[in-house]
Amino acid sequence: MNNTTATRSQRFLAALVDGIPLVVLGVLFSRHLLSDALRPIVLLLELGYIVLQFVLVSNSGQTIGKKVEHIRIVDVQTGQNGGFVTNVLKRWILNGVLCFVPFYALVDILFIFREDRRCIHDLIAGTQVVQVS
Known about the structure:
Number of strands: 2
Mean pLDDT: 92
């Protein structure tokens, strides 16, 4: 297994790739750019995309963006995929709840500048993002 930590740019680009579909669908849904008949379809597409990402990250430690960037999430102790509890519940859901704390998201992002490039959500879940060989 490759233990090379993912670069900041790899993590940023992966997050960008993962976020673009959600932003586009969210804007379409929230700005009333669609007829009322299409709004449920867009909502289902958005929910489907999130479920797909959950399945991918649970099974392989990779979202679509992480696959594009050839990086994956691993347990810091074992180097193995953490599965659903670690990758979805701890990294995404718990982190999403913590984003309601003022400035948490900014501080979480800034942790990428630590030497080990682990953000707060990595520290909480006991994970790191590494390059795939």
